[in-house]
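Notes to self after the Tuesday call (sharing in case useful).
The group wants a holo model before anyone commits to mutagenesis around the pocket. I volunteered. Ligand is pyridoxal-5'-phosphate. Logging inputs and output together so the record is complete.
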Amino acid sequence: MSTDLSSYFEPKDEQQDLHALSFSETALGMKASKILTISYSVRERIAAGADVTQFTVGDFNPKYFPVPNLLKESAREALANDQTNYPPADGLLELRTAVRDHYERSFGLNYPVSSVVVGSGARPVLYAAYQCLINEGEKVLAPAPGWNNDNFSQLVGANLVSIPSRPEDGFMPTADALRPHLEGARLLVICSPMNPTGTLIRQQQLEDVCDLIIEENERREAAGERLLYLIYDHVYWMLTFGEHKHLTPPQVRPKMARYTMFSDAVSKCFSGTGLRVGWMVAPPHIVAKVKALMTHMGAWAPRPEQLGTAALLNDPTAIQGFLEGFLEKLQARLNLLYEAFNQWKGEGLPVDVIAPEGAMYLSVKIDLIGKEGFPDAESVRLMLLEEADCAVIPFDCFGDHVNLGWFRFSVGAVGLEDIERCLPKLDKALRAVHARLNG
Ligand SMILES: Cc1ncc(COP(=O)(O)O)c(C=O)c1O
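Result:
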């Protein structure tokens, strides 16, 4: 026998208010992700039969981008060997040691193993860092556009201050833009290579920001004030193109090791978004607190996947072999789009584009906002969707209300043939709009 409980969940009018009253302010303050809202509406359009090219999702289609074989096979073997009990709250020693060695090999940074804590992807360790450092009302600085800083800030009651950016700086925060906001700030978040822009922070930009943080913290250390920390979210760090090279704060200023928390994962660099293995590398006293919180959150990575990740990180040749093909496919997609927009720009169409530097994203400007029929980014987004079957995300979904007209094109879910089918439609739509506006 089974009791149907659904009638208990149907809200009566007065009960609905009571339910709303029963939520915490944190729960009531949570906002639906605009990116997901757009992705769902695009999915509906596809389900209705439209041939939409999905540039909206920050995920990989495993058909084009499978995870490294060594990771898959090692995880499979671990599961077959009954590696199914609880992992330690800070992660298996095998994986923490492998991360430590991987960072030493890749960056020449020699961290103790006690600097590494593992989580089920980058999100839980990022959230835990916010939770462990920020009191309600304290200031968090993050550039706009940026990824998810608004949501993490809301969850811990932080006062998020968005730092405006410029395309000529690759949308990265500069020391000059940050300086006026330093007072009382507890956390600065930098993401490089960046979601949503596909750009990397330059060495000089990074050095200037590091000098600013060190100077501010030396002042605070002398005055006995709470420190300013840097989250350096580099989940895309192996995905860089051409002469663009990833750099980390402690490489340019070793003292930054005291203030830097790295977030990293297999999600992007190894195309394993669904495997849920990530980690933080940070000063040991911060890692110890994050571990304590993770003990209660239980956001641990599954044991077989931890062992699979350890096997991969311990094999630099396998990593290299994987990355060669992976980067080639990503770059081919990004370049195809880049070349097309660059050509349209040269022909005088109202577009701009930044050459791909890293990650899986391209920054494209469709310069129509303010022109007849285009009051905002949403109207431009809908034109691209309806006239060119091209689904993209405007930068305002990443908290950027300054760089109007810029959009993120994400290429992890599309094949070259999808882009080739979309380009003539984009060409036609852009020329038609241009002709209409220019009489
Ligand atoms: C910049 C950035 N950091 C972190 C994450 C989260 O990674 P994970 O899926 O490992 O939680 C993402 C995912 O989109 C991201 O773009």
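Two things stood out.
The chain has two domains: 31-60+321-434, 69-315.
The mean pLDDT is 96.
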